[in-house]
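Example 3.
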Amino acid sequence: MTTADLIGKIVQLVAGIAVFVAVIGLILFFIDKAPKRGRDVLQLLLFLLPAVILLAVGLVYPAILTAVAAFANRAGEFVGFDNFVWMFTQPEALITLRNTVIWVLLVPTISTIIGLAYANFIDRSRGERIYKSLIFMPFAISFVGAGIIWKFVYEFRPAGRDQIGLLNQILVWLGQEPVLWLQSPPANTLLLIVVMIWVQTGFAVVVLSAAIKGIPAEQLEAAELDGTNGWQRFTNVTLPGIRGALVVVVTTISIATLKVFDIVRTMTGGNFETSVVANEMYTQAFRALEPGRGSALALVLFVLVLPIVVYNVRVLRQQKEIR
Amino acid sequence: MTYTPIEIPVDSTTKAELRRGYNADGTKATRVKKRLTSRTATVVSLVIAIIWVIPTFGLLISSFRPEELIKTTGWWTVFENWGWTLDNYSEVLFSSSSSAPQLGSYFVNSIAITVPVVVFATVLAAMAAYALAWIPFKGASILFIAIFALQIVPLQMALIPLLQMFTTWLLPIQRAIHDVIPIIPDQSYIQVWIAHTIFGLPLAIFLLHNFISDIPNELVEAARVDGANHGQIFLRIILPLSVPILASFAIFQFLWVWNDLLVALVFSGGTADVAPLTQRLAELTGNRGQEWQRLTAAAFISLIIPLIVFFSLQRYFVRGLLAGSTKG
């Protein structure tokens, strides 16, 4: 990087923000100077339209185009359900779908269980904040970074040489042969899932821990006076008390897992039977230049997420009515 | 005998403690604590915490070891195979040889992508959230719910057409401007900025709306009676009161954009002019997956900024997270 490059980039950064601030300033100026007649409507539009136009043009309209493109081939001709037939008959595509199902079953369940246990164990213990920070830290790291961190853990050296990956070293200590982990299905998919669990558990801990703190101490004490043991208190008082938070955690992690892309991309590139829908979507659309297939895969992702969207919208509407 | 409840002048934490049934000297609190945390629980949580930290720790140690040692010995043998160096960092950051990662350039790109996007998304979302919450109009709640639902739509749905739109509409304009004023490069951050801003808006509007609509009605009403219009109310009352949630969202958006790979891959063109760190890292793992002296140092460089942001602003971050998830 030359100094000229650096200056060019800084100029772009500053200019970008300056233009944006100028535009917003102009909008606020018009809001201020709006004529008395129809003033509310004009103000409303000026406040709302920038975001709504961006969303409509950049998210809603493209999503509709994608849904249509899922039924076209690479020349853009209508081909009916061909792309879906491909997806549900080709062995590689089927493996992709199978892997996505495995991911979305395992990651939310295991992250939530570990997160719940951990949040419950550290609740009101000494050093609670440090405990929480440590497990929450991976959440701030990029999936790419996490991928590299774990690729190093899974690194392989032939038997007889010193291992540099921790996992194989543990095997060697136990008297086993080292394994080329990332290239041996089906173990490799599970090892990628471990990375996602590692990232998401911290999120579960933070949300569930806050929910656990929201349970009134009186309830726990009353249960204690009734002679319950710790497990009974947990299942009868704590669990019902944090049901809402549990649903949030499971659905949020499920959505994140369905969209997972970076981990697979960095660690195996989707090879060795590890691909998932989001990764295959990218490969088909931008590498294999099959936008129809890519769109079809994106549409499948959308359909998988749809029940969660509907459920969340219903919860939201109920909350709005209560208010 | 009847008690008259009195208001004791104490700070908010103590008040919360009093309400939850334990007193300031902590006797009841410690009693509850003792019964709830057993020895096994402590051991289990300690083990989990250690397992969670070890991979990152191993990477950090390795990034300071010389190439021969990283490639031949495990980092846990660092005491037997002693040796430390900063060469890995200086090589990945500053070396100008064509095979070197040249991360300096990508690091600047990451900053130049992330900072403006945070500003754009936060400001636009705050305005929209204000309109949805405080300017009554027909269909406000339906529009809000629609935006909320968009938050969950996979962004994969939008990638291909959005890229096509950029190529047909935005790129010619950029080229034209470049031809007239050559200082402005035709390869610029604009595409990535716009894409990230759009993808960040739904969550932003949802988070900010939840907070802004809870601002007491009296404050807004009083300003309106004094003759303030919506622009003034927004700037003088809503924005200053919303600083905590604005900070929370800004941190969210910062981490999400800094850590993103997919949007960068699709919209940045992949050159050192625009592409962020994550993209370069992904390339390095692909092409030079065995160059651990570079990968470890490079990975740590990409982690350092998010980790600083995370540890210094964790409180705001957690607040935003909880605001987003407990209400939704």
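Residues 103-134 of chain B form the longest helix (32 residues). Residues 97 and 262 of chain B are 28 Å apart (CA to CA).
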